[in-house]
Design goal:
mainly beta, 9-stranded parallel β-sheet, 1 helix, 25 strands, globular
């Protein structure tokens, strides 16, 4: 009996060493109101809420949900800025390591930012602006109905616009891989 107890204890001890801790999931911070110069993992503006960021660092993704509004200045986002169904997104004087993807919502203004990936405006219903940005990927503007202004962007990829009503307006854009569709002359 004593031998069985010792073997059972040894087996449990061996099993304890074999168990590994699961990696911790990135924390998500919810923003309603104002958030200043703090660092968070991921940030979410929940449906219907408004969030103002000033000097905030987001180590992951910044997500703006349905009918939510974001105003962000001098922020640093390591991942993407995503808005699907958002009422409005305003991003200025900021750095984004991924892309800015604003889809199927209201309006957006993206000005004076450094964005490693793309800027995408897709199926938006209110006025849009992309101006004075440095973009490592493409600017893609598709099926928007509130009017789009595209001015003085420096784009490593292409400036691509199609099926927008009215057609986008603007000037002074430089696109390393060319300008296409409705943005050909911008």
């Amino acid at each position: 009996m004593r031998l069985l107890s010792v073997l059972t204890a040894a087996g449990l001890a061996t099993g304890a060493f074999a168990v590994q801790a699961a990696p911790a999931a990135a924390d998500e911070r919810v923003c309603r109101g104002t958030l200043g110069a703090v660092t968070v993992d991921n940030l979410r503006v929940p449906s219907g809420a408004s969030c103002t960021l000033q000097g905030t660092t987001v180590k992951g993704t910044l997500k703006v949900e349905t009918r939510a509004s974001l105003t962000a200045g001098a922020v640093r986002v390591v991942g993407n800025v995503q808005g699907e169904g958002a009422r409005s997104v305003r991003l200025s004087s900021s750095t984004v390591g991924g892309s800015v993807q604003i889809k199927q919502g209201g309006g957006a203004v993206v000005t004076n930012n450094r964005i490693s990936g793309d800027i995408q405006y897709d199926e938006m219903t209110q006025s849009l602006e992309a101006s004075s940005n440095v973009v490592g990927g493409n600017i893609q503007i598709v099926k928007n109905t509130g009017g789009v202004r595209v001015v003085e962007n420096r784009i490593d990829g292409a400036l691509q616009c199609k099926e927008n009503r009215p057609a986008p307006t603007g000037s002074g854009n430089q696109a390393g891989e060319g300008k296409e569709g409705q943005c050909r002359s911008l």
